Amino acid sequence: MAMDTRERILDVAERLFGERGFPATPLRDITTEAGVNVASVNYHFGSKEALLAEVLERRLKPINARRLELLDAVEAQAGDGPPELEAVIRAFLSPPFHTQRTWGDKGRSFLRLVGRIHGETNEEFRATFVKQFDAVFERFRTALHRARPELDESDLSWRMLFMVGSMAFTMSWGPTLLARGRGTARDPEDVLESLVLYAAAGMAAPAPLGVPAVATAAR
């Protein structure tokens, strides 16, 4: 019963945070729709901020665990050499695409929430989201640097940001574009593969003028 209550609170919070945004959603609105009292939220989560963190972790923890599992396999195959660039990127991008299909209608609420997080100016709100990726980003940054050792670390961080932005935008707007058909119809796996190749090309591109590169030192 306690688990049912907890999941019900998470479902309602995810939907309302996605529809209204975190700052504009009073805790009382969540408890009213979930049919619980504020004490239940405090018991299960402790605070509204902790509730948001749990909403995010519920969806993102399995995705990030799968990312690290796939990256372990890529690095094991590479051994002492550099990992294949496309394989590293695929390990990062494929889990959210595959997991999204299991979410059903509830996934739309979460994607709206993620969209709001990307658009919100509330830094505390964003920090709660980014915290979910700290360990994953560090592992993938290290792997990508092994695959592209000539890239300056700052440039590599920016390219990872471009990759994440492309992924988030594709996941948010992709279903709408696919539904329109007439030239946009694509198999979801083809869309994922196109995104992997697109991100890999961006990672493989030479550093622009004015951006430090470490190619000479690396060689």
What does this protein look like?
The chain has 219 residues and is mostly helical. It has one domain (57-218): Tetracycline Repressor, domain 2 (Orthogonal Bundle), CATH 1.10.357. It is built from 11 helices and no strands. Helix 4 (48-78) packs parallel to helix 8 (134-147). The longest helix is centred in the first third of the chain and has 31 residues, at 48-78.
Please state the structural category: mainly alpha
The count of helical stretches stands at 11
Q: Count every beta strand, where a strand is a DSSP E run of 2 or more residues.
A: 0
Low-confidence stretches: 215-219
Number of domains: 1
- Rg for CA atoms: 20 Å
- CATH level 1 class label: Mainly Alpha
Between the first and last Cα atoms, what is the distance in angstroms? 61 Å
CATH architecture descriptor: Orthogonal Bundle
Helical coverage, percent range: over 70%
**Order of helices and strands, N to C?**
HHHHHHHHHHH
Strand content: under 5%
CATH third-level topology: Tetracycline Repressor, domain 2
